[in-house]
Amino acid sequence: MSAGDSGKPADHVGGALEAAASKLGVRTSASRSIARMAEPNALTPRQLDERRLIHRDDSVRQQADAFREIRTRLLALGGDQNFVTMIAPVSPGSGGSFVARNLAAAFAFDEAKTALLIDCNPRHAAQHKALGTEPGPGLIDYLDHPAMGMEPIIHRTGIPRLRLIPSGKPRETSGEYFSSFRMRAALDSLRCRYPDRYLFLDGPAVKGSPDARILSDLADFVVLVAGYGRDTPAAIAQAAAIFDPNRFAGVVFDELP
Ligand SMILES: Nc1ncnc2c1ncn2[C@@H]1O[C@H](COP(=O)(O)OP(=O)(O)OP(=O)(O)O)[C@@H](O)[C@H]1O
Ligand SMILES: [Mg+2]
């Protein structure tokens, strides 16, 4: 796997920084850190391997370093404030969920940060299975019934400082949910509550549906995931072009097994 800025959109990254900085400036710096969130059932390296997740052992060092590198680049764009990153694959199965999960884990490696991964792909929900979390309600359930509050949808993962909001009840399309006032309000509240919490939206594939673009309106940064040797340069360029260049952070090439 390798990370790279795409040609044209990368030229606008400076703009992204400015836009994000002005937006972030109005956020209140909320309550104390949750950095030392307890994780009583932390997973072993072997269990992390089974979940296709990076960890601190040498066996996965190259991959872990690649995700750390992406983390560093995003942090450079985001400045001092926490932010929302959407990760979306060019086409179904290009590795978007794999990258979203591991990027969130790379942020959670840092003891001063926490990561919240939100599965925003109700058609192909993957993270609850990949992470083996307890069954329970998720994003769609909350958006349908906001009175339930957000606490029941935030699940422990067995990885310190990493939490998951699963997708919840399956849905064929999700654009109406993503463009709703409720969704925006939910993300704002999740982000503003803890200044050390970074949000990762695992989005649907760009090809074949407008949902990824609609979701990207809620993110500060967009990371596009291309299947290495799978998505053609033309398909990657076409997918990149649908996003607001001010939010576009770059392309990650995922070498699928
Ligand atoms: N670099 C990798 N190393 C090992 N396994 C990987 C890698 N990338 C992806 N996979 C595995 O390939 C499968 C498909 O990847 P993933 O679910 O991330 O794709 P996706 O782009 O999110 O697809 P969807 O369109 O369903 O959202 C998963 O089982 C995932 O764990
Ligand atoms: Mg996916």
UniProtKB/TrEMBL annotation:
Please name the CDD domains in this protein's record: BY-kinase (cd05387)
Q: Does the keyword ATP-binding apply?
A: yes
User: One GO term of the cellular component aspect?
Assistant: plasma membrane
- Alphabetized UniProt keyword annotations: ATP-binding, Nucleotide-binding
| SUPFAM superfamilies hit by this protein | P-loop containing nucleoside triphosphate hydrolases
Q: Record keywords: rRNA processing included? A: no
Q: Which GO terms describe its molecular function?
A: protein tyrosine kinase activity
Q: Which InterPro entries match?
A: Bact_polysacc_biosynth/exp, P-loop_NTPase, Wzc-like_C
What is this protein's name?
Mrp family chromosome partitioning ATPase
> What organism does the UniProt record list as the source?
Dokdonella fugitiva
Tell me the classification of the organism that encodes this protein: Bacteria, Pseudomonadati, Pseudomonadota, Gammaproteobacteria, Lysobacterales
